[in-house]
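User: I'm curious whether this sequence folds into something compact or stays loose and floppy. Could you predict its structure so I can see for myself?
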Amino acid sequence: MNKWNETYHFPKEVLEQADAIQNCISALANEIKKISVNNHDIDEIHIVGSGDCYFISIAAAEAFKKISGIQAEGYEAYDYFLNKPFVSSKTMVILFSSSGKSLYVLKSLDYASERGAITIGVTNHEDSPLGTSCSVPLVTVATGISKSFPSKTTTSALALYYQLAIEVGVHRGRISEGEESHLKEELAIQVPEMIRRIYETEHPKLIDAAQMFLDARNYTFVGSGPSRTSAIVGAAKIVETSRNKVTFCNAEEYLHLHGFSVKSPDAVIVIGNNISNHRENQVVEYAQNQCARVLVIGDVEVDNSTINTIQVAPFLNTLSPWGVTLASMVVLHLFASELSRKAYKDPDAPHDVDLKHVINLLYTGPVAGWQVE
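Assistant: Here's the prediction. I'll summarize afterward.
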């Protein structure tokens, strides 16, 4: 186990997420407050990114709408560039690229800047094109530089989005002092504590369970509300670290469609959202009846426990929908890491593809962790 963690960056970074979230929130608290003070009268927020940087925008947009009372939308960067939604000086465009070199994030930045939008660049690299060209950079160096597929950078950035949503909500008079205190304490203290508890008590369960899920034909990730972000990120990690087939959907979509194709060779991963577990409970029951292998995370009931059903981290039911999204993502990162380890795959980079060609397509320069000649 220790040798695995020392050999590859991905499993090491998964185990650094509790500290990364705390460090990032603490390091950028003043910058977040300043952004909210200077821009609390904006009309709309656009959150733009590619890959994980886009996936977390789904939960972040819901937080801005619910906590801040402001219209917000998450956009995949290429779609944003193609569609060119209306922006003005009253629009805040938050662009996230860990490397700061993602091609269409930068093209989206150019578009938003040309139209006078407030551009916030979230990146690990201050001297990157994103860090140097946006209105306000949020540099996540407190997380440490990611040298693999992002895990700690992804969760830390989502925590920053939540923190900004809280601050904007305060300045717009949308949340009370008590609500502000509760949400900030959850982000800074309770979520990292929950993640450390996951490392201690749930990681061993995932190590043991990984063998059962190892040769699944397909992995279906189910998450609703903000937890849809967790489902998509979880699916992405399986593709990136093990190169296996995945799909993702919310619970209603599973019941209406995806469940029809699930059979015993498949795996279904169901993620609680701490808003409602009605459909999630039904997804578990449905998947069990289909004889699938089922992994249940958080506040989802398992009425008929079977040998093919594993439940982890039920204690996440004490968190808000925002907190549970962050913590459940860590469970899914650990799950992907253990599957990769059992399959003897390299979780840091897909060496079975032409990486140099892929990097040239996606980025405007070399990126950390994917150093190729």
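Summary: The two ends are 31 Å apart (CA to CA). The longest strand covers residues 44-49.
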